[in-house]
Design a protein that fits this description.
alpha+beta, about 45% helix
């Protein structure tokens, strides 16, 4: 009987974890959780950037359709002072009477709102798309659509963002002035 009691006591002692073993396991779980969260955040940012690049192409395609019909990239009455350029989603009623996006929708070149989900609600600054065409000829001959990527690749950082808006000149003006690091440029 005494021998059986000692055996039970020995078994119960060997099944317990020491404090150090528990701390090691908790530390490992914490490190794994941190790694997973970092990878998840990076995957989300990369997904948003992929959507931004696709949006830029969609906007550029709509601009090309507009140009094919009107020989101009300008949406009349939309954008900054109604000149068809500027922040793509901005519509303040003052200097931006109608957003360029809404102008494209009204003219049936886009089916709906295209907006950077990380951008401000009013679409007038920050992470918003920009739509500019070249003023160098009587009718604009080059369209550039800009965005700011969260996780730009090295090639994005060295883009020649030389396309200019009406108040922006110079090779890197759009990048320096507005913080954009991705551009899609099309020419008819």
């Amino acid at each position: 009987m005494k021998h059986q009691k000692n055996k039970t006591l020995a078994l119960s002692k060997s099944r317990a974890f020491t404090l150090i073993e528990l701390l090691v396991v908790i530390t490992i779980i914490g490190l794994l959780a941190t790694t997973i969260i970092v990878f998840y955040d990076n995957a989300q940012a990369n997904g948003r950037d992929t959507k931004r690049i696709a949006d830029l192409s969609t906007i550029a395609d709509a601009g090309m359709l507009l140009y094919a019909d009107t020989k101009s990239f300008e949406i009349d009455g939309a954008g900054y002072n109604g000149n068809g350029q500027g922040w793509f989603n901005c519509s303040t009623g003052g200097s931006y009477p109608t957003s360029i996006n809404q102008g494209f929708i009204t003219a049936k070149y886009l089916p709906g709102i295209i907006k950077d989900t990380a951008g401000p609600e009013d679409g007038c600054s920050g992470n918003s798309y920009m739509y500019y065409f070249d003023f160098s000829s009587p009718k604009p001959a080059k369209l550039s659509v800009y965005a700011k990527l969260e996780k730009p690749k090295q090639s994005d950082e060295t883009l020649n963002l030389g396309a200019t808006g009406p108040y922006c000149t110079g090779v890197d003006c759009m990048k320096k002035t507005y913080g954009v690091n991705q551009v899609v440029t099309v020419m008819p």
